[in-house]
Amino acid sequence: MRPTSLDHIMQEAWRKLLIPDTGYEISDLWQVLLVLLVLLLSAKFVPRTQKGEDKVYNVGLWFREQRSFIVFWVAVLVLHVGFELLTPLETSVFQLFNYLGAAWFLIGFVTSFIKNRFWAESWAAVFYLLTAYSILALAGPAVEFLDELRFGVGTFSISAWQVLAGLFTILFALWMSLAIARLVERQVQRVPRMSGSLKVLISKVARILILVVAGMMALNAMGIDLSALTVMGGAIGLGLGFGLQKVVSNFISGIILLMDNSIKPGDVIEIEGTYGWINNLRARYASIITRDGTEHLIPNEDLITQKVTNWSFTDNLVRQRIPIGVSYGADPHQCIEIVLEAARSIDRILKEPAPACLLTGFGDSSVDLELRIWIADPANGVANVKSAALLAVWDAFKANGIEIPFPQRDLHIRSSHVDFVKREEPDPE
To answer: Per the database record, which ranges form the Mechanosensitive ion channel MscS C-terminal domain (predicted)?
Structure first.
């Protein structure tokens, strides 16, 4: 078929939209306006389900949530039947909306019985796809019209129908690929003997591969020769390599972190003064939640290039060193026993390895002791255990009359003769 000019096609379409070809056909534009009016009225006067309701997804809930659209479809159906029975007018737009409404109602009603969300969405997508192809099969003239509307640059030419079909294919392929990626991720998370970092790595690689394959299939469905995009893809890749250097670096760093298993979700780490546990590992960053509930997004590159303290890399055991000072008048042997007894009274301090207290030196004002304790739950905080241990030691020292010294300076005056030198004031004149 020979392509028609764009101006001619648009003029014919506008004429047919506004003016009927025969006296027995109501204008498509007026049918569309009537449908929009019914839609506005149904949305205005039919109440909607409140979002805050505590509810379980079932058929009754689906009817309550979609009642405004059901009223809209029934109203359009009544208009269609009324025009068909009372007038000899053609109502193609009403027929199309009723066809779509019937398909939507059947799909929503049937899928409301499916409890699994993934399978419900999958069946709905298949049914919508079949409905779209059925409508297009009935709308042969519309397809021919869109196929005649072509755009081209040089030897490359593409029709409006190819663009619409390609966009539909891209959206459907992306939706299916994301659904499959979520399904793969859920199945991987259920494997009990697989480490957390390996689960994240498999999920991310599977998602990327599925999206790439879906994109290539969509471009192929649009009739675009992938070999013709080789040179352009190389140029775009070179530009992205310079412009997105940090993004690519973070992405590669994330893959390295997942492969070497240096950090994984649930680990307690410290980097640049930020202390917390890893909540999630993403392609570009790691999510770290601190004890006060603040969530920090640390770029993956920083976790590779900077010093990171992983408190739970091999195991969750963490040792703390707590300095304590006692006065020179106290017995250090008694003080060590009191400190150990106070440490054993703290629930989070492990009995094995047992706490230890050592005499580490003689300071200017105190005899220096050091309490060494072990904990197995650093995710619950480290500073709070130190605070609890110091409070227990304070109470034990007070109960036993042991003084905790503080820096003092004694001033000794060796001579009682003090010369005062009076500075001579300068003559103001």
So the answer is: 322-404
Cβ neighbours of residue 31 closer than 8 Å, sequence gap 6 or more: 91, 92, 93, 94
Residues 274-303: pLDDT tens digits? 888 888 887 788 888 887 788 888 888 888
Helix (H, G, I), strand (E, B) or coil at 131: helix
> Which CATH number does 318-399 carry?
3.30.70.100
Helices (H), 244-381: 245-260, 300-305, 332-344
Bridge partners of residue 299, in order along the sequence: 285
Q: What is the pLDDT of residues 167-184, one digit of tens each?
A: 777 777 777 777 777 777
Amino acid at residue number 386: K
Q: Which two tokens stand for residue 42?
A: 């149904």
116 close to 62: Cβ distance less than 8 angstroms = no
CATH class of the domain whose range is 263-310: mainly beta
Block residue for tokens 């992983």:
310
Burial 29-68 (b: 16+ CB within 10 A, else e): eebeebbeebbeebeeeeeeeeeeeeeeeeeeebeebbeb
What is the model's pTM?
A: 0.42
- Cis amide prior to 353 (ω within 30 degrees): yes
Angle between helices 140-148 and 6-18 (to 10 degrees): 150
Angle between helices 383-399 and 332-344 (to 10 degrees): 130
